[in-house]
Amino acid sequence: MTVSTAPNHGSSTPTGAGPTRSPAGHLDLSPSAPLLLNPKTRTYTQQFANLYFNRLTSLRPHVHARAARKWHAHASAHVQRTLDIKPNSLVWFIGTLVRISPAAAQARKIWSDQDKVAIEDEYGRVVLEVDEYLSRNSGDKAVPLITGVVAAVIGTETKSGGFQVADMCFAGLPDPEPERPLAMAAAPNNHQEGGEWIALVSGLHFGSPSSKPLPLIMLAHYLVGNIGTPDDQHLMSLVSRLFILGNSISVAEDPASSAANTTATTTADDAYATLDACLGLIAKSMPITLLPGADDPATHLMPQQPMHKSLFMSAVNAGEGRFKSVTNPMIADWNGNNLVFTSGQPLDDVFKYLDPPSRLSLACHFLTWRHIAPTAPDTLWCYPYVDKDPFVLVRRPKVFAVGNQPHFETCLYDDNEGAHDHPESRDHAKVRVVLVPEFRTSGQLVLVNTKTLEYHVVTLDVDQGNGEQVDDEDAMDTSE
Fold this sequence. Notes:
- The protein is of the alpha/beta class.
- The chain is built from ten helices and 18 strands.
- It folds into two domains: about 25-40 and about 195-250 and about 265-460, 4-Layer Sandwich (Purple Acid Phosphatase, chain A, domain 2); about 50-170, CATH 2.40.50.430.
- InterPro entries: DNA_pol_a/d/e_bsu, DNA_pol_D_N, DNA_pol_delta/II_ssu.
- Keywords: DNA replication.
């Protein structure tokens, strides 16, 4: 086995053996409470219109504030409703974008050159003419126009009844919070300082025919410090918690025959047992937080509910608080830093709307929109909430990570307006955006310092005896 570590530019990998692991820090999952559904009270008879209404209601004040600053010279041009648009006059208003595609029935891509974009509020819908706007705003920084995004548009009504868009504005992220002392941020008082480094991995796919068991076992032993160089072991000693971002289990069943069912059941049992054994080994050394993914035994509607702890008794029995099964998405406070993690479905779904997209820039647009699942419920199935949209970002994240992506990518996101009202918080405004690759294909583990936003990429190259290596060299590109 070969271990290679790619440090962040300007940082150095710590050296020297570390005898003990860094304190675990404090993980507060209360921000994820709106994502938890009570199985005794949840119902599915309500209409999705409530979700769109609550999204527009929640984001409208933030979009208005940004638009008023951006278009301050045209403050009087604002109209409250689509019904108030005045012909031959420059106006701006706020609504929810709707992408109208004749190719909506296609399974993999739902875009075409004939797509139209409209915007709607509680009173009506207006078709937007966006060709000129898009021609002026191209490239990765151009914000995609997809269904479910709340935006402000400024322009004029056309003779055909459409709306010629001159510019657009989105909610952006909440203002950064002043950095809090750890003693204030991480109550209760019995939690020690530390816990700055976290480990991110996704796509373990225990039980999949294409997922080899040896790299997965090696990963567990590397995380606990049983293998690797002294520098590797010291680096792992700084990591306070492991986050697994979905797709831990991947068991394909063939119902064609009873014999096939018996084999599939045996394979599933073995996969769960092996995963549980690995998690139990890791949990004795560092706490684990497990998100469900598209292939995991969990609800498939967003937000996915936590996988049942009975599947992971070895990890549960490692000690109180050593293992947490959480929702997907997960929003948590980690030592005063807001973490927002998903297992990848929202990004993969938005990916259908674009050609050719950049996944990293697309992930950054989620922050521009202040929403982590904009295409739900249109093309991404989700629970029909009545009184809220829990996917709206309430706090500015420090780290935004998306699991199960084809390659590792990362950048520091800054929306340039986040410190408008709090210039003293400028240093804390940036967000570390991380696309975490599938471990099955990349063999990669991502380490992030939640305070300094440094990162390291660890690649485990395991020779399977046939000359193949479980890694992807292209994913080692860590350029900003």
